[in-house]
Amino acid sequence: MKLPYSWLKEITGVDWSAEEMEDRLTCSGTAGALEKYDPEHFKNVVTAKITSLEKHPNADKLQVAEVTTGETTYTVICGAPNCAIDQIVPLALPGAKLRGEFEVKEITMRGVKSSGIICAEDELGLSNDHTGIMVFDDDTELNKPVFEHLDLNDPVIDFEITPNRPDCLSANGVAREIAALADLDINLEKEPPPEISERAENYIGVIIDDADACPRYVARIIKNIKIGPSPDWLKKRLTDCDIRPINNIVDITNYVMLETGQPLHAFDYDRFGSKEVAVRRAHDKEKFTTLDGQEHELDSDILLITNGKESVAAAGVMGGIDSEVTPETTTVLLESAYFNPSVIRRSRKKLSIISESSYRFERGIDPNGTVRAADRAAALMAELAGGEVLQGVVDNYAKRIDPIKVEMRPSRANKLIGANIPIDFMKNKLTRLGMKVESNDDNIIAEVPAFRPDITREVDLIEEIARIYGLDNIPSNNQNSGPLFSPTHRRDTIRNDLREIMTGLGFEESLGTGFAQPKRMKLLEPSIEPIEITNPISDEFGYLRSRLLYSLLVSTGNNIRHRNINIKLFEIGKIYIRTKDLPIEPEYFGFILSGQTDDIYWQKSPGESDLYELKGIANAICDRLRISSIALEPEAYGGYDKSCSFSVVRNDQKLGNIGRVAPKIAQVFDIKQDCFAAEFEISKLIDLDQGITPFKSLPRYPASARDIAIVVRNSIFVRDIHDSILNSGGKLVESVEFFDMFTGKPVPENMKSLAFSVSFRSSDKTLEDAEVDAVFNKIVKNLEQKFDARLRE
C-alpha cells in the first residue's frame, strides 16, 4: 500500500521529514520504503491548452492539435481518443526525456510537423495508464512545470503491512501509529454530509440472510449527482497510491477506502432493479458477470449482493456489470458493509479476483466504522459531484461486534520487555492507539476497538507497548532479564545462526524423524536404554533416538545408496533420554562429513574428508558463535572409533563430541566409506556465548615474528605446547601458530619435531631485537623445564 508523505503529515501535523517518518514507522513494525519521482523525467514538460483540433490529412486515427503555453503555440500530432479543444494538458517539448529515457524531438509524421507530445500518465511514469492523455482542471495555470503543478516533490511511502494489521491499510490507521510514536493529538472525525428532507429509508431497505457472513450492511442514497472527472488534487492522491482515477464517484469511493480502510461500492440506483438490498449466499451453478466482463459460475461459498431477484455484486470482491456507475448515472446507492474475512477469502479464491476491497475485507476491517465511511463519501459526493444526500442511513447491524476488554499487568509487561517503562507511558500510548484505558489495582484495562482484531490477550498489549516504546530503547546489558535477551530467545536465534554458518560452509540441512530402529540404536549407543514407542508405525521406528548421530547416519546411508557419495549434512533437533521421572529432550546440533571435500577438477587432486577438516569446521562454528579457546580431549564415545574420538571442551566445560564414525557402526547403516561427525548440545553453546563481539583498534606498531622448532615426546599434545608459549611469553606474545610436525630420522624414535610461528608486538612502541630475544629465550627455557623439550638443530 502506498501513501503520500504529505497526506500523513496533513492528518497528523507531525514535523518529521519523510525520511524520519519512514524510519520511525519501520522501527515500530509498520515497514515502509520511500519513493520519489525523478525531476529529470519532467524537464521541459509544461501545462498547455489545446486551442484547435483537425483531422490528420494522411492518417485516419491521428489529429493535428494546436497547443499553446500562453506564450508560444505548438503543432502536435495526437492519437488519444479523449483529446478535445480547451483541455489543459501536459505538453512535453523537444528535449524532454520521458519514461524509459525516450527523448522528445521535432518530427515529421506523414507530412505534418509535430513539435512535442501531449502525454498520458504512463509516459510521465505516474502510472501504467495509456488509455488517454492526462487532462488538468480548467483553472490550471498555463506554462507551469508539470512537476511543480502535480507537486511531485511529495515523496510516497510504500508500506508492507503484515496480515495481522488491517488497521494500517489506510491513511487514518498509519496516522494513528504516528500519533502514538510522536505523542500527538489527532482528530480523525469529519463533518457529516448536508442532508435534504427526503429520507433514504423510502428508497432502499436491507435484508441479510446470513448474519455470520455479513454482520453489517449500511446504505446511503445520493441524488442529482453529475458524473465527471475528479479535481486534480484527488486524481493526484489516487495516482500516488497506485489507483487509476476513473470519475468523481468511483474516485471518491476509492479515496475514502484509502483514508479510512473501509471499502465502498457505488451502484447506479436507477439500474439497481429494486428498492431492496438482499445479501445472501449464491446458489449452486448460479451465473454472475463481474465488472471486468467475466462470467462466473458460483456456489454457496460465495456471498452475493442482490436486488432481491438478481445478483448485482460479489460481496467484498467486485461489482456486477449491470449496475455499475456510468456517465448517465444521476442517483447513487452507496454501500458500506462489513463481511466475514474468511467468507471473502473463499470468494476471492473461487472467483480468482484480487481487488483493493477484497484485500482489506479478508484481513478484517472495522465493523463499527461503516457509517462514518459512508458519511464521509456522501459528503464528498455532495461537494465534488453536486449530489444531494438523502436524510438518514439505512443500517442493518444483524450481528453486533463490540470492542473487547483486555487486562494487562504493567509489572508483567516490564518483565517480558526487559525494561522499566512507566505506567503512565503505557496508558498514554494505548490511548493514542485508539483504545479506552482504565486502571484497576495498578493493572491496565484496555477496551480494544474492533479495528484491532489482532489484540485479544495480555501479551498482545505488551507487544504494543514494546514496539511503541522502541526496541532500540530496551537495554541490552547482561543483567537484562527480558525475553529478547533470555536463553529462550537465544535458543531461537542460535538455530538461525547455525543454519547460516553451515550453509555458508557448503552443508545441506537434514531433517530426521526422531525415531530409531531398536537394534541399530542400541549398537550405536549401548550405554543408554532408548525409549520405546507404544504404538510404532513400523519396526523401523520403534524407539526414539537417543543420539543425533543416528539420524545423520541414516541420511548419509540413504544418500550413498542414491550415488550421492560426497556428504556434507547437518541437523538441529531433539534427542530423548530416559530418566527416573519423565524423559528429558535436550536439543542438539550435529553434522557429518564423508567422501571428497571438493569437486573434481582436472588441475587439482581431490581430497578426502578427515579429522582436520572436521576440527576446522568445529572451530569455525565456535568462532562465529563467539566461543573462544576450544580444545579437543581424547574421549571414547559411543559410535566413534576409539582411536579418533574427542570431546570438545572450553575451560573444562564439555560442549560435545567429534570423531571418526567406527567402521562397524557405519556398515550397519550401509556406509562403506569413512565418516566424520560431531554433536553439540545447544544449551551448552548458549551458556558459553560471550555476547557482543569485542572490538579493538588496529595496531599502530609493527609485529616481529620468530619461528621455534622443538623436539618432544610423542605423548605430548600440541595444544599444551601452544598454551605454554602464550602464557610464558606474557603480553608481548600476540599469537602462536602451529605449522609443522616431523617424525623420523634424524628425530629420535618415539619423539616428534613441532614447529611454531610466534608473533610479538607491543601496543606502546616498536619492539627492539633485544626485547624480543629476551622473551623468546624465556619461552624456550619454560618449554625445556616443563616438557623436557630441546631446540631442533
Distance between the termini: 76 Å
Provide mean pLDDT, rounded. Answer: 90
Q: Strand content of the residues, in percent? A: 25-35%
Enumerate the strands of the largest sheet in spatial order, edge to edge or round the barrel. 29-32-33-37-36-35-34
Shape: elongated
If helices are DSSP runs of H or I spanning 4 or more residues, what is the number of helices? 21
Helix content class:
25-40%
Structural class: alpha+beta
Largest sheet, in brief, is:
7 strands, mixed
Low-confidence stretches: none
Number of strands: 41
Over the alpha carbons, how many angstroms does the gyration radius reach? 38 Å
Question: What is the compact description of this entry?
Answer:
The protein has 793 residues and is of the alpha+beta class. It is built from 21 helices and 41 strands.
